[in-house]
Write a structure and sequence with these properties.
The protein has 572 residues and is an all-alpha fold. It folds into two domains: 49-235 and 254-294, no CATH class; 306-451 and 485-571, no CATH class. It is 74% helix and 1% strand. It has 19 helices and two strands. The chain has helices at residues 2-22, 36-39, 47-79, 86-109, 128-154, 162-184, 193-235, 257-268, 270-289, 314-337, 344-375, 385-414, 420-447, 455-469, 475-494, 498-522, 527-530, 533-538, 540-571; strands at 118-121, 187-189. Strands 1-2 form a two-stranded antiparallel sheet. α11 runs antiparallel to α16 (498-522). The longest helix has 43 residues, at 193-235. The radius of gyration is 29 Å and the shape is globular.
Amino acid sequence: MSSKKVSRQKKSCHHCKSSSAAAPADSTTIHYEKFWLYRHCSSVQQRDKQAQKAGQLFSGLVAMNIVFLGCAFISSMIFNHVAITLAEVWILLSILKVLCLCWIFYYLLGTSRQPHAVLHRDAHAGPSWIRGSVLLFGTFSILLNICHIGYSTILIQCKSKVEVVFPSLGILFVCTQAFFLWHHAKDCIQVQHNFTRCGLMLTIATNLLLWLLDVTNDTIHMEIDSQLREVEERLAGKAPLSQLCNETTLCTCPNTTTCKVFQKGYILLYPFNTEYCLICCSVLYVMWKNVGRRISHHHIPHTKHKFKLQGVVFGPVLGAIAVITGICVFMLYQIQATGSTASHQVFVMYYSYYIVLLPLMSVGAVVGTIIHALEKKELDTLKNPTRSLDVILLMGAALGQIGMCYFSIVALVATNPMDLLNSLILSYSVLLIFQNITQNVFIIDGLHRQHFVAATEDKVKEQNHEAYDQRRVSMLELGQEIRKVSLSYIHDYSNLSWKRRALREISFFLVLCNIILWVMPTFGAHPAFENGLEKSFYGYSTWFVIVNFGLPLGVFYRMHSVGGLLEVYVTA
């Protein structure tokens, strides 16, 4: 009996080999590039993974070298203005922009149009709010470059021509990159893996260097404004400022409305450009992770969640109160802080608003986390590069605010923590650290939960399918069916569990709170620059370096938290 079984197995194996050899090659088969590590890999099953890792390693090394080179240029410009000038840094970044533009045009016209180039698209990558943010901040970046061109053209007699060429090239770069990300953010490219990875990493490195340059330039502008304000306070009525301003008036804006508009717009729009660069880096990184990725059919979601403002009352009301109060505080702060002297009361008002709002946000996040634990939903363990990146960005961006807070705590405790303003800043720092931690836990826990699919949605799909299949159904019967489905949906929604209601209320409240906490520092509310407490403790240059690396990350954290909270709200 055993010999008969062996003979049967041999025959069946021989039949499988012959049939597989005679079968025609599938036209949809993905032919992966044979990287050098792919060719020399001994295990057949691990060839694709080893080739993918090798390609990612090589492209990562390319990006690392570009970033280090750019950082060396920018650091040399900061510490040695004579050896490396800002114009030379712009020339380097212009070369990188041209290379990125060449690769993007090649991808749009060549790579993406090849047969079987994009067989899969990542449904989680490039959501609507991310692509909308790219367009929004890209528009502000274009306006920034227009203001830069106008300002440099008016002062062309004392400025380099590079200051006109660089923003002109920046407009083309922003438009092309925004178009590329809007249409191809979800691509899982299946051809030219290594070249595509290198192109994506080149674009990521360029955006990182543009962000770093914007941060340093924003630092210079803030430093000049604060120094001029201190000089005016110290020497007003005591000594003429003509001697002090001999060097600063060599290339000043003439007393014309056009020049003042370009100058104010140039300074005001700087934070938007930094956010644009960070958002583009996150989207490009997801595209880089999706190169060569194959998505099976069971990974594709069958339902598309939409934002609906139904069943939430307290969250929007409390959030609207927080937003309106924050706008009033922000306007009062801007009116007084932008004057010659910032009063002590305006700082007390600003930090008091945060001290009231941050505990409410922390309590909401803690309650939401507890509700997540009570729901007992299964965790979503499927591979999702977008979600992994969201978690990394939330944790990394929160480090900016947390780091600034710890520096403030050390400075305040070491000086005079019993003073009113010092105690407010100390409480603000502690509460901000706790709020960031609790909110991150709530968002990350919500992103990893299985999405809820209502039974009414299945009913709607089934009845719509039946309505399309039954072509002989009268319009009256179809209207009755739609009315039944609507009534069942309203009935089911009215019986929505209190857990899901609470999650949606909390998520919507935190969305509005994070929006106002994003608006205030983005549009110029920087009390860490004006209060002078930490600056006097750490020194002028050191504190500016700390704040200008932490503040943009804090702004990016608030904006990214809005996206994560919206996803938690929609999927609750």
